[in-house]
Amino acid sequence: MAAVLLSACVPHSQDAQLDGQFQDQRRSAAQAGERLEAETERRRQAERELAALQQAAAACRSQITTLANRNAAAEDKNLQLAAQVTGMQLEIEKRNAVIQLQNRVIRLLDDTKETIKTSLKEQLADKNIRLEDLDGRPKMIFMDKILFKPGSTEIQDEGRRLLLRIAETLSRQQEALIVIEGHSDSLPMAPAAREKFPSNWELSTARAGAVARFLVETAGLDPQRLAATGFSHYRPAAPNDTADGRRQNRRVEIFLDPLQ
Question: Among 203, 208, 205, 204, which Cα is nearest to 193's?
Answer without folding.
Answer: 203
